[in-house]
Amino acid sequence: MRLHVCLRPADPEWASYTLGVFVCHSCSGLHRNIAHISKVKSLLLDPWSCSELEVRTCRLDQWIRAKYERKEFMYVERQEPYSAGYREGFLWKRGRDNGQYLSRKFILSEREGVLKYFNKNDAREPKATMKISSLNATFQPGKMGTAHGLQITYLKDNSTRNIFVYHEDGKEMVDWFNAIRAARFHFLQVAFPGAPESELLPKLTRNYIKEGYMEKTGPKQTEGFRKRWFTMDDRRLLYFKDPLDAYARGEVFIGSQENRYSVLAGLPPNTQGSHWPFGITIATPDRKFVFACETEEDQRGWMSAFQMVVSRPMLPQDFAVEAYFKHKP
After folding, report:
1. Structure confidence by residue, pLDDT tens digits, 118-145
2. Which residues contact 274 (CB under 8 A, 6 or more apart)?
3. CA distance 40 to 14
4. What's the CA gap between 209 and 211, in Å, rounded?
5. CA 82 to chain CA mean position, Å
6. What is the tens place of the pLDDT at every residue in 48-101?
7. Domain of residue 22, CATH code
8. Fewer Cβ atoms within 10 Å of its own Cβ: the N or the C terminal residue of the chain?
């Protein structure tokens, strides 16, 4: 697509919250046709969350520098070796227990199929090893409180593990992000031979569908409601005591409506103990999950996110995840 910048009105009514650009009504239609790259919303009619309003400044700034300052798009030899298959360096990593950021050595190796980090520079064994097959990375400067903060997630014993890292140099952090995406791309090319690039690109890394606070109660719906931080990551709804916790307190799988999953506004009859008045009930084939939102706007936002998930047909790999959730200890 040759249209890089919308030059129509001075007061556009649409914006791409994944690219961080404003567009006119005509260009918004073009962006909807490339939904795997750009997602648009109306500035006047659609609700916006804080995470959507937060422009991906680090990525956008480095894209501009790569194009106009380093001229990487004009001179191939100036392009960074994102797809070299190996990257090594030091990043500031948040401690799991104390929350302190300490310098840690990271190695990304496509040959080994892993991203790993070491607590000591001369350590022979890594502190953690993350398989590229389940790796995800998304910029989270607002949540982390650092300008170039990156949240890395992977599956450990089929549960989600969070790692929060940053670097003072925005270019270094974006280079790591692109290296992870390149490694994911090469992995997916092997995992799905013959699949077109257009199908693989959305799978490289993903932003969360929605994040924020809700209250939750237990399976009997007689326990007290507790405030938790929730993250909707594809079909996994994770909840944490703190947004920067390494591990979730729990995870909920949300399937499709064809497989008897549904989302309803409100709380079941006789539900007590919620401090917030705007309820949401997620019904699964096995049980109901009950949540409460502080405001009606929050409720609408979460309802929209959940409805988007249940209205999407399940893929073969989704059934495998669902089976694990049903039989996990």
Report:
1. 998 889 999 999 999 999 999 998 899 9
2. 215, 217, 225, 267, 292
3. 7
4. 7
5. 21
6. 766 555 545 555 666 666 666 667 666 666 566 666 789 999 999 999 989 999
7. 1.10.220.150
8. C
Residues 165 and 222 in one domain: no
pLDDT at 87: 94
Are 111 and 197 members of one domain?
A: yes
Q: Which residue has the higher pLDDT, 3 or 189?
A: 189
Residue 71 lies in a domain: no
Residue type at 50? C
Locate all alpha helices (DSSP H) within 164-269, ordered by sequence: 170-191, 197-200
How many Å is the maximal CA-CA distance in the chain?
67
pLDDT single digits (tens) 133-185: 999 999 998 899 988 899 999 998 889 999 999 999 888 898 899 999 999 99
Mean predicted confidence (pLDDT) in 225-249:
96
Quick one: tokens of 12? 């556009």
Instruction: Round to whole Å and give the CA distance between 297 and 107.
Output: 42
- Both tokens of residue 6? 């919308």
The verdict on residue 289 lying in a domain is yes
User: Which stretches of 2-39 are assigned E, i.e. beta strand?
Assistant: 14-16, 21-23
Tokens read off for 127: 């502190």
Continuous segment of H or E residues that includes residue 41: strand 40-42
The structural domain count of the chain equals: 3
174 inside domain: yes
Of the candidates 238, 250, 236, 258, the residue with the CA atom closest to the CA atom of residue 310: 258
Domain that holds residue 122: 77-203
Can you read off the two tokens belonging to residue 191?
């995992």
Instruction: Tell me if 118 sits within 8 A of 105, measured CB to CB.
Output: yes
Residues 191 and 231 in one domain: no
- Per-residue pLDDT, averaged over 214-237, amounts to 90
Report yes or no: 25 and 3 within 8 Å, Cβ to Cβ: no
Distance, in Å, from the CA atom of 243 to the CA atom of 257, rounded to the nearest integer, reads 29
